[in-house]
Amino acid sequence: MTTRRHFLFASFLGLTTARFARVAEPAPVKSKPDVVIYEGSYPGWPWVTAGADGILYCAFREGTEHGFSATGRALLCKSTDKGKTWTKAAVIVDAPDVDDRNVAIAALPNKDLLVTYNTYTRAGESLAMTVRSTDAGKTWGKPRPVGTDNTRTRAAAYPLADGTLLLPYYVAPGNGALAALSKDNGDTWKAVRVPDAEGFVGDEWDVLEVEKGHVVGILRNSHPKTDGTFWMTESKDAGKTWSVPKKTNVQSQRHPSPAQITRHGKTPTLLYADRRMVSVSAVKPAGDDFLRWDLEKRLPCYVYNADESPVRDGSYPVSVPVSPRERLIVDYEVRKDSQRITGYFVTFPEDW
């Protein structure tokens, strides 16, 4: 005979089973790219952005090796279908016997495309530069120096809420992080120095304006004894002054590489190679100081090989949203038999 107790228990069991049945298993971590954006001789260090019309732009350097390449040039690919297919690469800039490298691209509020990069010579001298397109990348103006010798770039120029452009770059050789500010849409720049700290020397970095005038920067450490831990600096006055950097709890293991700090929906998000040349992950803040990040809920984005063996070179991931929950992560992968700029579509949790 079925009693009320048996009935209630059976009902509870059925509801519980149904609830667990609706919980989807986490998707396996990808070990192959969804799209190859470019294949060449030694492409590297890409950046991706979206224009106001939804066109995606991917800029990167093509050369012959990781170090100085006399044929190093800045290239651009476009996608009009949210990253599924890409155009043939077009030249942005290619100075003779100069390595035009560390290329990044920003779609400015006035619809200009502003590419930042640095020249690099046989003698090891470098100079941060900008070049502009006013016609969606069909043609490019004359390259212009940012203004400081022996400087290199990584991230794109960032438009702040007050209309200022902020370019995070750095000194090399010698090292130390710099922030260049432009009040005239990138025509002229004024540089300020980010302080160094004990055990820290500023290097490649990226920025995010978390609220008007409050900018957070995440930096790679070029100190000789670095362990790959990222450091954080912040500005409360729209980039005019910067705090002394402090250590975060996030680390790029095996070899240090730079992170991208961005926003997925409304959530500040750090995209980084947790094991350089092995795997890439994303993480969100564990507090409001941007020093602690929620590593327990770290989102594994992809591994380069299913057996988690390293590739020869890679791990400069950057990303752009392509839907409310999905991002396209762009990286470079140099292997024994292929050298590519690749893309991975990664779905983020609903509660990210």
Question: How does this model look, in words?
Answer:
This protein has a single domain, classed as Neuraminidase (6 Propeller). Helix content is 5%, strand content 46%. It contains one helix and 26 strands. Strand 13 (177-182) and strand 14 form a beta hairpin. The longest helix has 18 residues, at 4-21. Mean pLDDT is 93; it is low at 1-24.
Structural class: mainly beta
Order of helices and strands: HEEEEEEEEEEEEEEEEEEEEEEEEEE
The overall average pLDDT, rounded, is 93
Tell me the number of helical segments per DSSP (H or I, 4 or more residues long): 1
For the structure shown, list the relevant keywords:
352 residues, mainly beta, Neuraminidase, five-stranded antiparallel beta sheet, 5% helix, 46% strand, disordered N terminus
Quick summary of this structure?
By secondary structure, the protein is mainly beta. It has one helix at residues 4-21; strands at residues 35-39, 42-50, 56-63, 73-79, 90-93, 101-107, 113-120, 126-133, 144-149, 151-153, 158-159, 165-171, 177-182, 190-193, 202-211, 214-221, 229-235, 246-251, 260-264, 267-275, 279-283, 299-303, 313-314, 318-321, 326-334, 339-347.
Architecture blueprint of SSEs:
Blueprint: H1 4-21, E1 35-39, E2 42-50, E3 56-63, E4 73-79, E5 90-93, E6 101-107, E7 113-120, E8 126-133, E9 144-149, E10 151-153, E11 158-159, E12 165-171, E13 177-182, E14 190-193, E15 202-211, E16 214-221, E17 229-235, E18 246-251, E19 260-264, E20 267-275, E21 279-283, E22 299-303, E23 313-314, E24 318-321, E25 326-334, E26 339-347
Antiparallel strand pairs: 1-26, 2-3, 3-4, 4-5, 6-7, 7-8, 8-9, 10-12, 11-12, 12-13, 13-14, 15-16, 16-17, 17-18, 19-20, 20-21, 21-22, 23-25, 24-25, 25-26
